[in-house]
Design goal:
Oligomer: heterodimer
Structural class of chain A: mainly alpha
Order of helices and strands of chain A: HHHHHHHHHHHHHHHHHHH
Largest interface: A-B, 33 and 41 residues
Number of helices of chain B: 14
Structural class of chain B: alpha/beta
C-alpha cells in the first residue's frame, strides 16, 4: 500500500480510531493490532512475501534469545553467522542473484566463452533491504551485548513489521524502537499535531514536488541524446529534487504517522541540500542508513583509526557497499564510488567534520562563502545522481559528456522533455520547498514552524492542501521501494 | 485526544470551505478547453448542425463529419470529442451541452462513444482531465444515483469519484496544458471539430520518441494482432455502469424527446453487454463485419488511433450503421 494512495487514506484513519479509541487501555492488544495492520499494509502489495518477513522475524527472534542465553563465544558467533546468512541470503537471492549471474555471463561472453547461466524470474519484495537491515541490527547488537533480547514475541514481530517504516525506513535500531513497544502509550496533543504537520509536509514533498519532477526527468533521461546541455543540467537538478522529495517525503510521512501512534522514529533527513561539503551531506542524507553502515561496517573495519590509506579504503568500502545496497546495478556502485571520491578531499584535509552544526544558524541568509559551498556541494551531488538515475553506466557517462558539449538549445526540446504549461509552476514550488525548509533547518522537519500567527499558519497549511488536491492523482511509486 | 480531533475537524471544514469556493469558480465546460473552443465554434459558425458527437480521442481523431454526412445524406454533424476524455466526463460535457447550447432544438442526433472510466494510476497524461469530475454537483450525481459499493465497483472506482469530485483544478489549469493541444484546437476547427493530423507527428512508446514510420515498420503486426481477431482483450467493466445509466436517464428526459442518443462502440473496443439498456440505441462497430478497419495497417496513426485513411473508413462505416439504424427505426414506427 502506498502512502499516497486512496487505500491508505482509508486505512490509516481506521487504524488510528481502533488503536486509540478501542484498544487504548491494552498495550498487548495495541501491539497485536499494529502487527495485524502492518501485515495487512504489506500484504496489500503482495501477501505471499509476508512469509519472508515472518520467517525472518522467527529466525532473528530465536537467534536473539539463544545468543543471550549462551556464554560460549563460538556459539554466539555461529548464531550471528546464521542470522547474517538467512537475512543476507534472502537479500542475495531476491535482489542480487540476477545481477551476479548477468554480470558473470557478460564477463564470460567478453572473453569469448558462451556459458548461459539461468537468471531467475523473480520480483524484488518491497522493502526487503530495509527490514533486513533492521533485523540484522537487532542480532548484531545482542551479539555485541548492547541490547538485551526481548522475550515478547509480539513486540519483536511488530518491531520488524511496524508499517509506517516497514518498506522504506527509517531503518530503526532495536535499541530505539523496540523498547517503545513495551511502554504504555498516551495520546499527546503536541506530538499528534507535530505528526500531522510532518505527514502534510511529506505529502507535499512527494505528491507535489517529486511526482511533478518525475515525468520531466523521465522524458529528459530517456531522450537525452536529443537535448542540449541546459536541458540535461535541468534533468539532473530536477532528479535531485525528485529523489529528495520522494524519499524524504516518505520518511516524513512515516515519522509523522508513527508520532500519531505514539512512537518516536529517528530523523532520516536533515535538510541535506543545505550542506556545505559532502561530509555534511552524508550526515544529513538518509541518516538511518548512513549511521547503520557507520556502526556495523565502517567502525568494525577500523573506521578512521588506522593509517590514512586504511581509512580511505574504509570510506570507499562503505560508499560502494551503500551504492550496492541501493540496487543491483553498476550505476549504483559507481554512484557510491563517486560519493566516496567527493568526500576524500575533505577527509584528507581534516575538514570533513567541520560542519556539524546548522548552517547560518540565527541568520536569515547564509554568507557568500556558505552559499558558494552549498552550491558546489549541490552540484557534486547532482553529478552523482546522474549515475543513480541513468539506465546504465555507459548512458550516465554519455549524459555527462553531452552536458559539456556545445549543442544549442531549441524550443522543440521543451516538448521532447514533456514540458507543459503546468511545468512552469515547478520552479516556484521548488523555491517554496527550499524556503520553507531553510526557515526550519534547525528543526526536525520542514513544516515544524511557520508562524505564531494562526491565520498565517493555517493559511499556509491550506495552501499546501490545495497544492495536494491540485497535484494528487498520478500516484507514482516511491523510488526507494525498489531498494 | 478530543482537542486534537476538534482542531482537525475545524481545519478540515475550513479547507472544505475554501475548496468549495474555488470549485464554484469552475467554467461550465468542465474545464475542458478544447471542448469549450469547439462549442463556441459550433454555436457561432455551424448553426445548421443537427448531429454532434462526444467521445475520447477515438472520436476526436477518427470521426470525420464530412465523410459521415456524405454517407448519411441527412446529417450535418460536428465533432465535439476531446482527447483523453473518458465516459464520465463525456456525460458531464453532454449535460453541459444540453443545458447551454442555444440551438438545441435543431439537434436530432447525439453520438456518444462508449468508453470506460479510466483509472488514475499510470495515466499521467490523463490526470488533469480526470480531475474535472469532482465538484459538488457531480458528486451528488454519482452518489445520488449509483453508489459504487452497491454496484460492486472496485475501490479504484470509488477513489476516482472521491478524489476527483472536489477538484478545482480547472480553475487554474485547464486542459490546454500541452503545446500540442493548442495546435489541436487550431487544426480541428477547420474540419468541424475533427483533428486530421498525420505525417508531421511522432508517436511515443514507453516515453521514447520514434518516428511514425519507424514505429510502424516494427509494430505493424503487433497493432493488427492487438486490435483484431482473437487477441483482442475483452474489457467489459463495471465501471461503465454509471455512464450508461446516466445516458439512459438523459435519453428518457422529456426535454430531449426530439434527440436520438446513439451509443457508438468503436471497433477497437469489444462488445458491450447492453441488454439492460433497452432505450439506448447502439451503433456497434466492434462486430465482425467492421473488423477490416482494424486489420489494415495503413489505417493507423499510432498504436491506439486511426489516421486520416482510417478515420475516413471509420466515419463511413459509422454512417452506414447510422443509416441502418434510421431505417430500422422508421420500419418500427410504421409498424
Amino acid at each position: 500500500m502506498l502512502f499516497n494512495s486512496f487505500e491508505y487514506l482509508l486505512f490509516f484513519p481506521l487504524v488510528f480510531i481502533v488503536y486509540w479509541f478501542v484498544l487504548n487501555k491494552h498495550l498487548k492488544f495495541q501491539n497485536a493490532f499494529l502487527l495485524l495492520a502492518s501485515y495487512f499494509f504489506y500484504g496489500w502489495w503482495d501477501w505471499r512475501f509476508l512469509s519472508l518477513i515472518i520467517f525472518s522475524s522467527i529466525v532473528d527472534y530465536t537467534i536473539g534469545l539463544q545468543m543471550s542465553e549462551s556464554d560460549n563465544q563460538r556459539k554466539r558467533k555461529l548464531l550471528l553467522f546464521a542470522s547474517l546468512l538467512v537475512n543476507l541470503g534472502f537479500l542475495g537471492v531476491f535482489k542480487y542473484y540476477n545481477f551476479f549471474i548477468d554480470s558473470f555471463n557478460t564477463l564470460l561472453d567478453n572473453v569469448g566463452m558462451q556459458v548461459n547461466m539461468m537468471s531467475l524470474n523473480i520480483i524484488l519484495p518491497v522493502g526487503i533491504s530495509f527490514y533486513t537491515f533492521q533485523t540484522l541490527s537487532y542480532t548484531i547488537d545482542i551479539y555485541r551485548n548492547k541490547l538485551q533480547p526481548t522475550k515478547d514475541v509480539l513486540q519483536f514481530f511488530t518491531y520488524v513489521a511496524f508499517f509506517p517504516q516497514l518498506v522504506a525506513g527509517p531503518i530503526e535500531r532495536a535499541t530505539n524502537l523496540l523498547p517503545q513497544f513495551n511502554i504504555s502509550r498516551q495520546f499527546n496533543y503536541d506530538k499528534a499535531v507535530d505528526g500531522t504537520k510532518q505527514i502534510l509536509w511529506g505529502f507535499f514533498k512527494k505528491v507535489v514536488i517529486a511526482d511533478s519532477c518525475a515525468p520531466i526527468v523521465n522524458d529528459i533521461f530517456t531522450n537525452y541524446q536529443e537535448l542540449s546541455p541546459i536541458m540535461l543540467i535541468l534533468g539532473a537538478i530536477l532528479f535531485a529534487f525528485q529523489i529528495y522529495g520522494d524519499f524524504s517525503g516518505y520518511s516524513d510521512i512515516a515519522i509523522g504517522t508513527s508520532r500519531l501512534l505514539g512512537f518516536n522514529l529517528m530523523q532520516n533527513f536533515a535538510f541535506p541540500y543545505f550542506s556545505r561539503n559532502m561530509g555534511e551531506f552524508w550526515r544529513r542524507w538518509h541518516i538511518s542508513l548512513s549511521t547503520w553502515f557507520r556502526d556495523y561496517l565502517y567502525i568494525p573495519l577500523g573506521g578512521s583509526r588506522g593509517t590514512q590509506l586504511q581509512s580511505v579504503r574504509n570510506i570507499f568500502v562503505i560508499f560502494i557497499v551503500s551504492g550496492f545496497w541501493h540496487g543491483a546495478n553498476w550505476t549504483f556502485i559507481v554512484w557510491g564510488f563517486l560519493n566516496a571520491l567527493f568526500i576524500i578531499p575533505s577527509f584528507l584535509s581534516g575538514s570533513n567534520r567541520n560542519y556539524l552544526g546548522v548552517v547560518a544558524l540565527g541568520k536569515v541568509f547564509p554568507s557568500i562563502k556558505e552559499a558558494f559551498q552549498i552550491f558546489i556541494t549541490f552540484l557534486l551531488t547532482c553529478l552523482a545522481w546522474i549515475f543513480f538515475r541513468a539506465a546504465n553506466v555507459w548512458e550516465a557517462g554519455d549524459y555527462i559528456r553531452r552536458i559539456f558539449s556545445f549543442k544549442s538549445f531549441a524550443m522543440e526540446e521543451l516538448e521532447i522533455a514533456g514540458f507543459s504549461d503546468f511545468t512552469w509552476f515547478l520552479g516556484p514550488l521548488i523555491i517554496l520547498l527550499q524556503m520553507t525548509e531553510w526557515k526550519n533547518r534547525s528543526r526536525q522537519y520542514g513544516l515544524a514552524f511557520i508562524s505564531k500567527n494562526i491565520i498565517i499558519r493555517w493559511g499556509f497549511y491550506i495552501l499546501i492542501i490545495l497544492f495536494l488536491i491540485q497535484y494528487w492523482g498520478s500516484e507514482q511509486d516511491f523510488i526507494y521501494f525498489q531498494f | 485526544m478530543k482537542s486534537y480531533l476538534h482542531s482537525l475537524l475545524k481545519f478540515f471544514l475550513l479547507c472544505l470551505g475554501v475548496v468549495l469556493i474555488l470549485s464554484l469558480l469552475k467554467s461550465g465546460a468542465q474545464g475542458n478547453k478544447e471542448y469549450y473552443v469547439k462549442f463556441k465554434d459550433l454555436q457561432s459558425n455551424h448553426k445548421e448542425t443537427n448531429t454532434v458527437s462526444f467521445g475520447s480521442s477515438h472520436i476526436f481523431r477518427q470521426f470525420k463529419p464530412t465523410t459521415f454526412d456524405q454517407t448519411t445524406k441527412k446529417t450535418y454533424s460536428y465533432n465535439l470529442g476531446t482527447p483523453a476524455a473518458d465516459g464520465l466526463q463525456n456525460i458531464f460535457l453532454l449535460e453541459d451541452f444540453l443545458d447551454n447550447y442555444k440551438n438545441i432544438e435543431n439537434i436530432e442526433y447525439v453520438l456518444f462513444e462508449y468508453i470506460g472510466i479510466n483509472k488514475i494510476k499510470g495515466q499521467n497524461h490523463q490526470t488533469l482531465r480526470n480531475s474535472y469530475y469532482l465538484n459538488a454537483s457531480t458528486l451528488s450525481l454519482v452518489f445520488g444515483n449509483y453508489p459504487p459499493w452497491y454496484k460492486g465497483a472496485s475501490l479504484s472506482f470509488l477513489k476516482a469519484y472521491l478524489l476527483r469530485k472536489l477538484s478545482f483544478k480547472n480553475v487554474f489549469f485547464n486542459t490546454e496544458t500541452r503545446r500540442l493541444n493548442k495546435l489541436n484546437i487550431k487544426y480541428c476547427l477547420k474540419e468541424r471539430g475533427y483533428l486530421a493530423l498525420e505525417t508531421d507527428l511522432r508517436v511515443t512508446k514507453n516515453s521514447k520518441l520514434v518516428s511514425r514510420k519507424k514505429y510502424f515498420d516494427t509494430h505493424e503486426e503487433e497493432l493488427v494482432k492487438k486490435f483484431s481477431g482473437r487477441d483482442r482483450k475483452v474489457s467489459i467493466k463495471k465501471k461503465n455502469i454509471p455512464v450508461l445509466d446516466r445516458l439512459n436517464k438523459i435519453s428518457n428526459h422529456k426535454d430531449y424527446n426530439h434527440i436520438q442518443f446513439l451509443v457508438v462502440i468503436h471497433p477497437m473496443y469489444p462488445m458491450l453487454k447492453v441488454d439492460k439498456y433497452k432505450n439506448l440505441n447502439i451503433l456497434n462497430l466492434s462486430k465482425k463485419d467492421h473488423q477490416s478497419i482494424l486489420t489494415n495497417p495503413s489505417y493507423y496513426f499510432d498504436k491506439g488511433h486511426l489516421g486520416k485513411k482510417g478515420a475516413k473508413a471509420f466515419s463511413k462505416a459509422l454512417g452506414k450503421s447510422f443509416n441502418k439504424f434510421v431505417k430500422n427505426k422508421r420500419k418500427a414506427k410504421n409498424k
